[in-house]
Specification:
Main location: membrane
Protein name: Cytochrome P450 714A1-like
Keywords: Heme, Iron, Membrane, Metal-binding, Monooxygenase, Oxidoreductase, Transmembrane, Transmembrane helix
Strand content: 5-15%
Structural class: alpha+beta
Strand order of the largest sheet: 1-2-6-3
Membrane topology: Single-pass membrane protein
Helix content: 55-70%
Cofactor: heme
Order of helices and strands: HHHHEEHHHHHHHHHHEEEEHHHHEEEE
Length: about 425
């Protein structure tokens, strides 16, 4: 019996390996290879992928090389604000090799990098304001989302792909990520169910918050699925996006605005002078905010140089025509916003310089192709909180500049970091002096 068992076990492992290889070939490699074939037939090429990991090993190698070659990051070393070669060096390298349109692979996912302007134009008080009375629960969701953001940003998580090495060699981290995701989804769904009960009691109410509008859209849209699990996923995913985008992005944008103003005191003086005329009492109201042109230009230029969201991302659920290219079903389309915002052909030779005056006549006159300005996305997927965020930023910048003169601390290290959004790795250290 022992001999039979030994022989059986000896055959089990090779059989399991054969099954795994068969699975990977027919469900992963073969599928992505077919997608690449369709794209190559249309003239879209890209770096050759490995069998299991796609281009992830090459991306990691390029990232490490960029980190070694990175220039000093003291405040005095900030000359140009182009961090794309540091944070996304593989995209910079591949763009030089293949142009602004190419394809690459991460594991079993095929991606299309599309930074062509003509293709971009074809792309498709938060907790209380959006979700009614569930403010306390909203704060808890914010906290858990921040924890999830930190975890996901570590290691080899790349554009929605958790590598095999993270799954098998860092199982505790992977379990923590999954646990946080479930807790966040559970909290959001509790909020949704509470809101459903409130709606049932007050059917005649004409006031609708954003959560209720999302719920109604999920129930009425036949493509989502009414009362099915698809509608639940639709609601939860949209709420997660709103919580994260609304909370983090505005705070980070305000931080970058103050960093840039600390480097350019003349713009502080200009804003302060404008405030004195528009708001003699020092308290900007709705009418005064619209008159703060210099503040608006500074905010727009900040969002150009340091857009909190680094990407516009879409997935083709069906074969989709984008410009002259038919994108096969299942391909993830990525547009790297900071590179568009620094394209000298679009913005001129001073694209890496802080020059708010380029927006003096609005976005339409600031660059060659206005659709290339994407701090809030574009088209039907334009950020719902765009106007709210711009007002918030104007008020924050105005109030700080009206009360303080400030400069960067000698201890400040300029180190933009990609943690789902582009933020200062170690914060921004600023020296303030009362006006």
């Amino acid at each position: 019996m022992e001999v039979v068992a030994g022989v059986s076990l000896r055959w089990i492992f090779p059989a399991a390996v054969a099954v795994l290889v068969h699975y990977l070939y027919y469900t992963v490699w073969r599928k992505t290879a077919e997608v690449r074939r369709k794209l190559r037939a249309q003239g879209v090429w890209g770096p050759p992928p490995s069998v299991l990991y796609g281009n992830l090993p090459e991306m990691q190698k390029i990232q490490l090389q960029a980190a070694v070659a990175a220039p000093p990051n003291q405040a005095s070393a900030i000359v140009a604000h182009d961090y794309t070669s540091t944070l996304f060096p593989y995209f910079v390298k591949w763009t030089k090799e293949y142009g602004p349109l190419y394809t690459y692979t991460t594991g079993g996912r095929q991606h299309l990098y599309a930074n062509k302007v003509e293709m971009v134009k074809d792309a498709d008080v938060i907790s209380r304001a959006c979700f009614g009375s569930s403010y306390a629960k909203g704060k808890e969701i914010f906290s858990k989302l921040r924890d999830l953001q930190k975890l996901v940003s570590e290691g080899n998580f790349s554009f929605g792909h958790i590598s095999f090495s993270d799954r098998f060699f860092q199982p505790s981290k992977h379990r923590r990520i999954k646990k946080l995701e479930k807790e966040i989804e559970s909290l959001i769904w509790e909020t949704v169910q509470q809101r459903q009960q409130e709606c049932a009691k007050t059917k005649s109410s004409s006031e609708k918050d954003l959560l209720q509008l999302i719920m109604e859209a999920a129930m009425s849209d036949p493509t989502v699925g009414g009362c099915s699990d698809s509608s639940k996923k639709f609601i939860v995913d949209n709420c997660k996006s709103i919580y994260f985008a609304g909370h983090e992005s505005t705070a980070v944008a305000a931080t970058w605005s103050l960093m840039l103003l600390a480097l350019h005191p003349k713009w502080q003086d200009r804003i302060r002078s404008e405030l004195a005329q528009a708001c003699p009492d020092g308290h900007p109201d709705t009418a005064a905010i619209s008159q703060l042109k210099s503040v608006g230009m500074v905010v727009q230029e900040t969002l150009r140089l340091y857009p909190p969201a680094a990407f516009v991302a879409r997935e083709a659920f069906v074969d989709t025509r984008l410009g002259d290219v038919v994108v096969p079903k299942g391909v993830c389309i990525w547009t790297l916003i900071p590179m568009l915002h620094r394209d000298a052909e679009i913005w001129g030779g001073d694209a890496n310089e802080f020059k708010p005056e380029r927006f003096v006549n609005g976005i339409a006159k600031a660059c060659k192709y206005p659709q290339a300005y994407l701090p809030f996305g574009a088209g039907p997927r334009l950020c719902l909180g765009k106007n709210f965020a711009l007002v918030q930023l104007k008020i924050i910048v105005s109030m700080v500049v009206s009360k303080f003169r400030f400069s960067l601390s000698p201890d400040y290290r300029h180190c933009p970091s990609y943690r789902m959004i582009v933020e200062p790795a170690d914060g921004v250290k600023i020296v303030f002096q009362r006006v």
